[in-house]
Design a protein that fits this description.
Blueprint lengths: L1 H9 L2 H4 L3 H24 L6 H19 L42 H5 L1 E3 L5 E3 L9 H19 L23 H4 L3 H10 L13 H18 L15 H7 L55
Antiparallel strand pairs: 1-2
Helix pairs in contact: 6-9, 8-9
C-alpha cells in the first residue's frame, strides 16, 4: 500500500484528479494518519485543540528546562563589593588592606620627587633648593611649554605677575623677580603647584610631577635670565638688545619696555580682613610691593 501511495503521489495532479480510485486511497491514508495522532494525544490525556496542544507542549518543555537548571551561576562562591560575607569572622566582604602593601604604580619610593619636601631635624617638612633629576635643555623646553600654557595667563611670560588676567581686573599674581620669590628654594614652586597657595589653585591635575619639576626649573632659569648681565653670557655668543630684536621681528615700539600696571588692575594690598584669606594663606607677604624692572640704558658707543 505504501509503495502504491508513493507511486500515485508522484504522478501529476491532473492525471490523478479524475481517477476515483486514487481519491479513495489518498483520503483513507489521511484519515489513518489523523486517527494515529488523535490516539497519541488521547493516550496522554491531552486535549486535541491546537492552541491547547501548543501551550501544553511549551509548559512541559519549560518544566523540563527548569528541573534541569542548577543554581551554581546564581550562588557563586565570590565576594560582592559592599556586601556582607559569612566567610570571615567580622562578616565584612570588603577586606582591609594588608599592612605595608602598595598598589601597583603607587610605590612613590622617592618621596621628595612626589612631595617636594623632606623631613627636617625638627620633624617638620622642609623645602630644598634641589632638583630630583638632572636639568637638561629638554627639561627646560618642556618647562617653558607648560609654563606658557598654565602659568603665563597670571604670571605673564616673563614672570612679573602682570599676565592677561590683570588687564581684566584680576589681582596681580606673584612676581618671580622680587626678593621674596628669588629667595624661595626651587622645590617651593613644586609644592605650590601641587597644593595651591592663596588665590592660586593647585595644578596637580594638569601637571604630572615631572612637568611640575620642569616648570620649577624653568622659573629658576627665567629668574636668572631677567637679571642676567653681559658677563653671564658665554664667550663668542652675540648679545642683542631687546629693542633691536623687537624691531627685527616687526613688533610694536615699546614691546621690550617694562610692563606698566594697567589701570584695571586691583592692588591686593593691604589685606581686607573682612573678605577672608583664600586657602588660609598669609594675608601679606614679606614684600608686598610689585616691582617692575627698569630697562637699563644702552651703553654709549665708543668713538
Amino acid at each position: 500500500m505504501r509503495k502504491q501511495l508513493s507511486a500515485f503521489s508522484l504522478q501529476p495532479p491532473a492525471q490523478s484528479a479524475g481517477c476515483p480510485i486514487h481519491s479513495v486511497i489518498l483520503s483513507g491514508a489521511k484519515r489513518s494518519r489523523r486517527t494515529c495522532v488523535s490516539k497519541f494525544w488521547r493516550m496522554r490525556g491531552i486535549p486535541q485543540r491546537p492552541i491547547v496542544r501548543v501551550l501544553t507542549v511549551s509548559g512541559l518543555s519549560a518544566l523540563l528546562l527548569l528541573t534541569g537548571c542548577r543554581q551554581d551561576m546564581q550562588n557563586q562562591p565570590k565576594l560582592i563589593p559592599q556586601r556582607g560575607s559569612a566567610m570571615f569572622a567580622d562578616h565584612r566582604g570588603a577586606r582591609p588592606q594588608v599592612v605595608n602593601t602598595v598598589a601597583r604604580g603607587q610605590l612613590h619610593a622617592d618621596s621628595y620627587f612626589y612631595t617636594g619636601v623632606v623631613q627636617g631635624a625638627n620633624g617638620y617638612r622642609e623645602e630644598q633648593n634641589l632638583m630630583p633629576f638632572p636639568v637638561t635643555i629638554e627639561v627646560l623646553k618642556r618647562g617653558q611649554e607648560r609654563f606658557n600654557i598654565y602659568c603665563s595667563p597670571c604670571h605673564s611670560r616673563v614672570g612679573n605677575g602682570l599676565g592677561a588676567i590683570v588687564d581684566r581686573g584680576y589681582k596681580p599674581a606673584a612676581n618671580f623677580h622680587d626678593q621674596v620669590r628669588l629667595a624661595q628654594p626651587v622645590s617651593h614652586y613644586f609644592y605650590v603647584m601641587t597644593h595651591g597657595y592663596g588665590a592660586m589653585p593647585d595644578y596637580s591635575a594638569q601637571l604630572v610631577p615631572e612637568d611640575r619639576w620642569a616648570v620649577a626649573a624653568y622659573i629658576r632659569a627665567l629668574q636668572l635670565s631677567q637679571a642676567a648681565t653681559e658677563k653671564d653670557v658665554p664667550a663668542g655668543v652675540p648679545v642683542k638688545e631687546l629693542k633691536d630684536i623687537a624691531r627685527e621681528r616687526h613688533l610694536p615700539e615699546g614691546f621690550a619696555e617694562p610692563w606698566a600696571l594697567p589701570a584695571t588692575a586691583i592692588q591686593a594690598y593691604p589685606h581686607d580682613a573682612s573678605q577672608g584669606t583664600p586657602a588660609m594663606a598669609p594675608a601679606n607677604p614679606a614684600d608686598p610691593t610689585i616691582k617692575i624692572p627698569v630697562t637699563k640704558p644702552a651703553p654709549a658707543a665708543a668713538n
